[in-house]
Specification:
Two copies of one chain form a homodimer.
Chain A (H helix, E strand, L loop, with lengths): L3 H11 L7 E3 L6 E3 L5 E9 L11 H17 L4 E11 L5 H17 L3 E9 L4 E9 L17 E5 L4 H12 L3 H4 L1 H8 L5 H9 L4 E5 L3 H9 L4 E4 L8 H10 L3 H7 L5 E6 L4 H5 L5 E7 L3 E4 L2 E3 L15
Parallel strand pairs in A: 4-5, 9-12
Antiparallel strand pairs in A: 1-2, 3-6, 4-6, 7-10, 7-11, 8-10, 9-11, 12-13
Chain lengths: 321, 321
């Protein structure tokens, strides 16, 4: 992997070029997205030793997760992704086998979600990193699910495991690759998050009021979802908690509920729905009612006020882990 | 500048939030671009010690150029930018004064080109870096100018200085900030490239056939523009060369024409136009006829075959410089 052309050739063997929503594919000064419908866009960084470690992520894992965290933002709009651009920072010393795996992991996910690679940039760099921008279109009526829109009395719900990826991160940091064998479910939740595009689309069609991607943990993301003028009364007990999270918490002397809501990189969906639309939304696979929106500000969990910051890639150098 | 919120607050003081072509601004899982028209998109990296050096770029220069190189891709489509996303890699040790200058340099250019900041991501990192994705709309009929489309006999032209930014880079690398005073025109061509949005729009309206951003030097970019089956016969003489480039070449014992076509980071526009549309295109400010498209492959300059690679941020660690 010596030249830019080697990379471009390898990329061409992996990634789809065209899409019905792409008027012009990669290779020119710009790609052109087909008009006619509103387009949602999100950009995320995925950097070595901030967001992932090479000693326990395989090349495929890195490629997969770099794209997955972006798809999750599209899913959280109740939208369907169709294309992405990739800015790739290439450090010295990675061989063709690595890059093949990296592109393979990313391209497999791109194919499963029907996405074309629309463009990007390559540069040498000290460390491996990816910046992806991703594009999606809304539900059947072009509707996007934004944050908030909640009213007191609305039902709050999540789809996806809370806290499990955090347990995965903690075990991977402690045990390295060995955690993949000893705690496979948790480790894979961290290494290979599954973005919930189909679920987001179904929730959109079911008429939920608002939806958001839980990436910094429920405790941190719920106030962002509610906005400054509302609170929430949550019930998180027993079967609503992930068994692996409970087992890990008990083994480590931690509180299972706290570990669940602190989470981090859950890539679960958090939403609110009115009583009227609740039955339709509740039929979506994985729908888990977690509580109610309240007029009173602040978060109560199982009857007790709760306030702890969650996970932050930016502020806290110890956040990983 | 300790927390992510400090950054978000500072960003809000600098950057426009709304735009008529933006259905939903930054702050949610995604921004939403208004449909109805095709949208062109480009992504570029701008990394410390690859694309810029902090010892002779001011904070304002870095912010300006990170956005300018992206705008240049929009200009090269004959399009008008309206929004961008910014993924920012934040190293330790930069104070609020730096960030104020950085955002100021970027926001001033964004304001001048009528762009909103639609979203992005922040992460700590070892070195300063920016990945920007930028969005634009086409000419009056939604037309975009792509590469190629040339036929033998078409007139090739450029708008913008070739080789000048390369001289700027060479003098800045040799003299540091001092070059800003001794070679201000060349230094500013490297530090503060001026994207040619208005020119691109005019060329689009004038009916040129193809347009491209010259960022790796004319010698490297012209074959990309022509495609594999065509060549070019160029005439580059006397007043067509930039005076500063000629003076620098003569002082350093270099060939002025070679320095002009090797260039690098020119951010000039390269296009082709038919004989019929030539008079209209030629009235666009800065239009410089440089030669003709030929059926015979290869590039001839002033009657002599020419082949030398240009500037590459990727392959050649010595490229800077």
């Amino acid at each position: 992997m010596k030249s830019e052309q080697d990379f471009l050739d390898l990329i061409d063997t992996h990634f789809t070029f065209g899409h019905e929503l792409l008027r012009l594919g990669r290779g020119d000064d710009c790609a052109v997205l087909a008009g006619g419908r509103d387009i949602c866009v999100s950009s995320d960084l995925f950097l070595e030793d901030v967001h992932f470690r090479r000693d326990y992520f395989t090349a495929e894992d890195i490629g997969h997760k770099a794209l997955a965290v972006n798809i999750s933002d599209i899913a959280a709009m109740g939208a369907r992704p169709f294309a992405f651009t990739m800015d790739l920072m290439v450090p010295p010393g990675l061989d063709e086998e690595f890059w093949n795996g990296f592109f393979q992991g990313m391209a497999t996910l791109a194919r499963h979600t029907d996405m074309a690679l629309a463009g990007g940039d390559l540069s040498r760099a000290d460390r491996l990193g990816v910046s992806i921008s991703i594009f999606g279109v809304g539900g059947s009526k072009g509707r996007f699910l934004t944050r908030g829109n909640c009213a007191p009395g609305d039902i709050l719900f999540t789809v996806g495991e809370l806290g499990l990826a955090r347990v995965g991160l903690l075990t991977l940091e402690a045990l390295g690759r060995q955690a993949r064998e000893e705690f496979p479910t948790a480790a894979l939740a961290h290494l290979r998050p599954k973005p919930k595009v189909m679920i987001g689309t179904l929730l959109n069609a079911a008429g939920v009021k608002g939806l958001m991607d839980v990436s910094d943990g429920l405790a941190r993301d719920l106030p962002r979802f509610l906005g400054p003028n509302l609170g929430a009364d949550l019930t998180l007990r027993g079967e609503m908690l992930n068994g692996n999270v409970v087992a890990y918490a008990l083994a480590m002397g931690l509180d299972p509920v706290e570990l669940t809501v602190l989470g981090g990189e859950d890539y679960a969906l958090l939403g609110c729905v009115s009583e009227e639309e609740f039955p339709k939304a509740a039929s979506v696979p994985g729908f888990t009612e977690i509580g109610r929106v309240t007029e009173a500000q602040g978060i109560r969990i199982n009857g007790t006020p709760f306030s702890t910051p969650g996970f932050d890639h930016f502020e806290n150098p110890q956040s990983h882990p």
